[in-house]
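User: Can you help me understand a structure? I only have the sequence.
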Amino acid sequence: MKCKNHPNKEVVASCVECGNFFCSDCLTISDRKHYCPDCVKTLLENDAPVSKQLIIQQQQQLGNEAQISFPVQQTNWEPIISWGLSICFFLFALSYLARGQLAGIWSTLLGFLWLIPFNDWLKKEKNIEITLAMKIGASIFLLFLMGLSTPATTK
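Assistant: Let's start by predicting it. Here is the structure, written out as tokens:
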């Protein structure tokens, strides 16, 4: 029987993932299991629980010409921060609106500015994109307005 990738070479084993037969040049061995190059690539890309030996073996076979890249999962903090700031601004809005102060309206608008669904709607429907710098600038401006609208107490 001949190798799937090298028709002139004899088969030594089959891949435990796909079941196709390959020669010794194609297979990567890890924990006494044989993997073909395509399945190794898929396992590494999908961040499957693959043994370190499989990764080391694959790097040795590829040599210095190729690098294996691993997908690094990072926490996307933007939605968490955006929702948190929106809630804070809406709470500010309630407190200022309850006292009949104008800053409550600005705080409400700013709360919407930080909401992700509102930003998505602006992008899709109105073709307006609000950058992080614009949001921060508006937040600073709101804090300034809130400071102006708070009556100064004198003793």
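Now, to help you interpret it: The helical segments are 37-45, 52-62, 77-98, 103-114, 116-126, 132-149. The mean pLDDT is 76. Let me know which part you'd like to focus on.
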